[in-house]
Amino acid sequence: MFKNTTITAPDGKEDKTQVYFGRPWHNEPKTVFIDTECRVKPYEGYWYPKMGAIPALWAVYNIWDKNGYKMSEKSIEEYWYEENGQTIYGKAKNFLTDEEAASYTLENVFGGDGTDAVTGMWNPLPMVEQTSKPVINGKEGDTAFGWTADEYAICYVVTINGKVAGFTVDTRYEANLNDVVTVQSVNEYGALSEASDEFTVGNTGTGLENTAMESPVIVIGSKGMISVRGIEIPTRIYVYGIDGMLIQNLEVHRNVSLSVPAGRYIVKANDSVTKVSVN
After folding, report:
1. What confidence tens digit (pLDDT) does each residue in 141-162 have?
2. This model's pTM is above 0.70
3. What is the bridge-based pairing of β-strands 180-186 and 199-200?
4. CA 247 from centre of chain
5. pLDDT at residue number 76
6. Angstrom distance (rounded) from CA 188 to CA 180
């Protein structure tokens, strides 16, 4: 399924580019394009007629050109393929009704058989779910600035004067006075949040004391162990691998030691974010 897709080509080549929407596939393929902006020129009927098998469904629903004009939804119906020296002809379903097009939701497409097996549902939404938009704070005349922490972020991207300046697991950064900065939070799969509002370094914000600039929580990596100290209130701890995958997630009410294999980790405890190495 291709939904809300733009089909394009390099700058200056859209008008000269002509494409098929599908090529010789096997095993009775099913492919649909729904709500498509087509900025290039498709071949008449959209699909290549020679296949590796007769498609079960190849269709186009709601397609328009780069100027916004509606295009034909008529796909070719007849296909052929060769097998053991024989040419085999057949017809494919080549359209979608309004009801059929509406049924192509993420849940239905990835629903599988509903079990926990490999044939069960795969839900990619957490991979693209945005973390929160950071809010930057600072003090007048100070080159340091901070921002609100997001408990689901594994790190932050700092942009200074329109260019990416660094990646950090802290919620504090330094730049030059009058630099214009923004911050984005990053979820465990690498998806970026909306960028913060621009902030001019040295201007007054709500005060660094209101952000997670410092924390009494101390995280220590040792042999086969991550120790979290300084916990005085109920604290949610997240342990991520360096690749961003969540390893542990628990709430504790006192200091705790966690057994983990050797490696590098990112540990979040309330607003504190720390990188540690375990040997």
Report:
1. 899 999 988 888 899 999 999 9
2. no
3. antiparallel
4. 19
5. 95
6. 27
